TrEMBL record:
Species of the source: Acetobacteroides hydrogenigenes
Name of this chain's protein: Biopolymer transport protein ExbB
Family affiliation: Belongs to the exbB/tolQ family.
Membrane topology of the entry: Multi-pass membrane protein
UniProt subcellular location: Cell membrane; Membrane
Cellular component annotations (GO), alphabetically ordered: plasma membrane
Main location: membrane
Pfam families found in the cross-reference section: MotA_ExbB (PF01618)
MotA/TolQ/ExbB proton channel domain boundaries: 122-241
Coiled coil: none
């Protein structure tokens, strides 16, 4: 909802500035030629702000084609940031957790070790809790439980990545769609005029180039976040597997002591 509201306010501001620019242009044409000539060097020296340039290009590219690409960027970044926060919160110091579980087993038994897992956040602690909860049924059952619940936790970590990959694929497609439409408009203008005039085809070609560039930029930005998330998930999964093996070893030693 916030993303859509932000996009609409951005578009309305851009259109308002376009109308204001048109009004200013109409008023300038009524000014004396000599005064306009004096003001021209000053206007040429004024630099446009970066955000103003972005709004201008957004309008020139056509809101009909630029708005979907902008939505892909907004929603893709929202999902990526949410996943980054989730994965960083899911990171656990497995060595400290394993040491705490081993000490709890030696001092208070399985229930004390389960309490340690309950007080620790993250998928590794959840997997350990499931394994400890079935420790009375044997090591093989614990191992199967850890593997099964580990797959569940991995699916939760990968949630949302399919949407990011969709936005990565669809953003350039939307840009290419604007390219095709822009070229069609340019050729229609040539056909109507019966002659190749640069002023007739410039508008269509501009739409084609701006939408394509925007779609590629959005795809590249989201691709960086996607690769980071994939590498983060891979490291967490490897950590989970190593910690699970260590948990099995701890339970074997505990059962032998009993």
């Amino acid at each position: 909802m916030f993303a859509v509201i932000g996009m609409l306010s951005f578009a309305s501001t851009a259109f308002a500035q376009t109308d204001s620019a048109k009004t200013d242009t109409a008023a300038t044409t009524q000014v004396d030629t000599a005064a306009a000539g004096d003001q021209a060097p000053a206007a040429a020296e004024a630099e446009t702000a970066v955000h103003q340039q972005i709004k201008t290009k957004f309008i020139e590219g056509g809101p009909l084609y630029m708005a979907p690409i902008l939505l892909c960027l907004i929603f893709g970044l929202a999902i990526a940031i949410e996943r980054i926060i989730y994965l960083n919160m899911a990171t656990t110091n497995t060595k400290k957790l394993l040491q705490g579980i081993e000490d709890a087993l030696n001092q208070g038994g399985v229930e004390a070790a389960k309490e340690v897992c309950r007080n620790t956040r993250g998928p590794v602690a959840s997997i350990f809790y499931q394994g400890l909860d079935r420790s009375s049924e044997g090591v093989e059952v614990v191992e199967k439980s850890v593997v099964s619940y580990g797959g569940v936790q991995m699916s939760q970590m990968e949630s949302g990545l399919t949407w990011i990959s969709l936005f990565i694929a669809i953003a350039p497609m939307l840009g290419f769609l604007g390219t095709v439409v822009g070229m069609i408009v340019a050729f229609d203008n040539i056909e109507k005029a019966g002659d190749i005039d640069p002023t007739l085809v410039a508008g269509g070609i501009k739409i084609a180039l701006i939408t394509t560039v925007t779609g590629l930029i959005v795809a590249m930005i989201l691709q960086v976040f996607y690769n980071y998330l994939v590498s983060k998930i891979d490291s967490l999964v490897m950590d989970m597997e190593d910690a699970s093996i260590s948990l099995i070893d701890i339970l074997v030693k505990y059962n032998l002591k009993k």
